[in-house]
Amino acid sequence: MDRTEEGFIPVLNPADGEVLGQLPIAGEREIARAADAAHSAFKRWSGMLPLDRFRIIAAATALLRQRAKEIAQVLTLEQGKPLAEAHREVTLSADIIDFLAEEAKRLPVRGVPPRLANVLSQTVTRVPVGPVAAFTPWNFPANLPSRKLGGALAAGCSVVIKPAEETPATCMAIVQCFVDAGIPPGVVNLVTGDPAFISSTLIANPHIAKISFTGSVRVGKLLGEQAASHVKRYTAELGGHAPVIVCQDYDGEKAAKLAVPAKFRNAGQVCASPIRFIVHRSQYESFRDAFVKGAASLKIGAGLEEGVQFGPLIDNRRVLEMQAFVEDAAARGATIACGGKRVARAGFFFEPTVIEHASLDSRVQNEEPFGPIAVLDVFDDLDDAIARANRLPVGLAAYAFTNLLDDAHRLSAAFDAGMVGINHFGVSQPETPFGGVKESGLGHESGLEGLLGYTDLKLISVAQS
User: In this model, does residue 6 exceed pLDDT 60?
Assistant: First the structure.
């Protein structure tokens, strides 16, 4: 991580590589102050009625919507995605927070019939887990902090949040909405700087009760080990490598037209992004032709430019990684159907890339590229396609296209994934749980499940005195 001599990290515009600003690096004292503030504020915030918390949170999301245009411009400048995508992300973030706050007004309480005559009642309730340390990545600078802030605050938890050092300003703008809406001091705290130092320091802090992390499998495992060593609650939304099965009965061209915007949204820097397209032989040619045509026709440019559909990657390291994936696949006999090169302009741009018939031992078939690379393969037997779809140790999202009801149910049951989309890619909504199986993570965000993850169960059993 690059630092200035003054103890700051430069924040770059990925569209041109220019410095947007300097991010301060929090030290041990600042991190401890944030945790102390969250600890002090927790009792007051958790003791408020859910309806009163809801009113403050709703006031914050109203401000978020009012400021959506300005925040979207900040998001695009620091992250790179097209402005239209950024604006949708900001407004959807408000919807996510609102849903979680609304659900918190009716957290379930379950009655358990007693088996002893002198026991009057037994209830199972939900209580806030305590102060939360939340760590978010750079690919969705509004959406991902909002999932964590929304779930934690609605449940009655206080928060110390650390946004990605590449994209801090969007999260700062969201936190400012909560401050301006009148959230009590210390309920929301934000720290910036070295991710490894901040995470290890906060996880070890005795005031922190829960860790919420979104990021890579590798880092997620490390933080999980640290959380386990302190016996702290841990939610991890980690990587994926989503397969897409296009069945014999589904029109290949139609599937490709749906797939192109899903694959290349946010330049492919999406954990649930479709990557491995496994297409029946009868539909392969029509799918490939339409998919390659669509990928090659995307308008590339800086996110603030009019009509841009495809922006830069977050930094030069990602560009070099894309080059390495392509070179490895080509060296092992794959065909590069389109793209495969860095775009000759300032900034961190890489062409929308389609790779055909990459060998199963190539990197792109086994490691999440997290970028604008799609892999196309042929299948003849559906059982073989399912086996290939499930062969990796991750299982976040999986998709299939079929007109047959039997195959739709068969694929839904057979996929080893936390989220399955049949005939569409829109598996992530404010009302639905987001999370995976296997090494794709622990727990969920968004939906009712995303709220419950910030609570503990408490049994209350009352007997006659």
Answer: no
42 CB neighbour count, 10 Å cutoff: 23
Q: Look over the chain and give the mean of its residue pLDDT values, rounded to a whole number.
A: 97
Distance between CA atoms of 163 and 170, rounded to whole angstroms?
9
User: Domains (ranges, CATH) in the chain?
Assistant: 8-238+440-463 (3.40.605.10), 242-430 (3.40.309.10)
Per annotation, catalytic residue among 271, 338, 356, 439: 271
Centre a 10 Å sphere on the Cβ of residue 34 and count the other Cβ atoms it contains.
29
| Confidence band of 3 (pLDDT split at 50, 70, 90) | very low
Vertex 319 angle, CA 336 and 5, to 5°:
170
Render pLDDT for 359-394 as a digit per residue (tens, 0 to 9).
Answer: 999 999 999 999 999 999 999 999 999 999 999 999
Rounded-to-5 percentages of helix, strand, coil across the chain: 40, 20, 35
Give me the residues paired with residue 400 across strands: 245, 422
pLDDT at site 4 = 42
For residue 73, the model assigns a pLDDT of 98
pLDDT tens-digit profile of 287-303? 999 999 999 999 999 99
Whether the CB-CB separation of 187 and 41 falls below 8 Å is answered with: yes
Which own/partner contact pairs does 175-183 have at CB distance under 8 Å and 24+ positions apart? 175/149, 177/60, 177/61, 177/63, 177/64, 177/67, 178/56, 178/57, 178/60, 178/149, 178/153, 180/60, 180/63, 181/56, 181/57, 181/59, 181/60, 181/62, 181/63, 182/56, 182/59, 183/56, 183/60, 183/153
271 is known as an active-site residue: yes
* Whole-angstrom distance, CA of residue 177 vs CA of residue 456: 28
Which one is catalytic: 166, 237, 351, 439? 237
pTM: 0.95
400-413: string of b/e by CB count within 10 Å (b at 16+)? bbbeeeebbebbee
Q: How many residues does the chain have?
A: 465
Structure confidence by residue, pLDDT tens digits, 117-141: 999 999 999 999 999 999 999 999 9
How far apart are alpha carbons 264 and 297 in whole angstroms?
Answer: 12
In the numeric block, the tokens 């005195």 are attached to 465
> What is the structure's pLDDT at 333?
97
Q: How many other β-carbons are positioned within 10 Å of the β-carbon of residue 54?
A: 20
Q: Are 10 and 2 in contact (CB under 8 A)?
A: yes
Mapped onto helix, strand or coil, the DSSP state of residue 112 is coil
329, two tokens: 């696949």
